[in-house]
Amino acid sequence: MVASLSGPNGSAQITLAPESLPGPTLAALPDPLFGTDGIRGKVGELLTAPFALQVGFCGGQVLQSQASVPGPVIIGQDSRNSSDMLAAAIAAGLTAAGIEVWQLGLCPTPCVAYLTRITEAMGGIMISASHNPPEDNGIKFFGGAGTKLATSSTTAIAAQLRQRWEGNGDGVPSLGTAGAWGKQYYRPQLVADYGQALQASLGEGATLAGLRIVLDLAWGAAAPLGGGLFRRLGAEVIALHDQPDGDRINVSCGSTHLDDCRRCRGTSSRSGLCL
User: Fold this and answer.
1) What is the Cα gyration radius of the chain?
2) Which of 70, 188, 220, 275 has its CA 20 to 30 A from that of 247?
């Protein structure tokens, strides 16, 4: 099997033995496949590159069939070490289905929802497991309105995925031929547009001048965006865990571990936010 990989730094081809990319068996697929926040699981068990590729292909076909006007699909991701792999595999599945893909790179989940709603995108996908530990990840779909994909749509994706797996003797099914391949574009600049929209939503002249705020960014997706946003509003920011780190995301920090934020109470801060 020869795979072509492309990205901002160029392209390359690698040869992979079939057994080097295991996917889950049909029996291992959870039922229902989609939970409250999309597909969640352990990376290397449920969430593998072949599985994500199939999710992208089937999800793309369902989004395409339900869109009144064809458009791109926007993909964002958090800082987990597995997010690059899953985003690339899903993008491959989408482009195999003939769909244009906009890759945002690192961004918060609401960024994907917002950009899906205000652009010509027909859907969005976020690669994240929210506050789960680093070894987990997830795939969350948004419809063209920027809201969580309807249950009827996620059920259709899951049904198509199962049908393809069953038709291939419980192996990894071929994508077949879509007739026209989609293109992929890297558009990280759109994340800055989202940050500007957040600031504009507060109204002209809004300021946090004079406030000292503790901000725990949990080594996650909002790390590059969060501190700068509050500083532009005039706040003095004490930023904790403010670099993206796939090994430490959510580990003893963030909204599920408040100790570090509480320890900053002696800094005369007026408020604290833990993501």
Assistant:
1) 20
2) 188
pLDDT digits (tens, 9 = 90+) for 123-182: 999 999 998 999 999 999 999 999 999 999 999 999 999 988 776 655 556 675 556 789
How high is the pLDDT of residue 254? 81
Q: How far is it, in rounded angstroms, from Cα 130 to Cα 117?
A: 21
Mean pLDDT taken over the chain: 86
* Order of strands, sheet of 39-42, starting from the edge strand that comes earlier in the sequence: 39-42, 136-143, 123-127, 73-77, 101-106, 184-186
H/E stretch holding 40 reads strand 39-42
Domain at 201-274, CATH from 3.40.50.920, 3.40.50.2300, 3.40.120.10, 1.10.645.10: 3.40.120.10
Q: State the catalytic residues.
A: 130
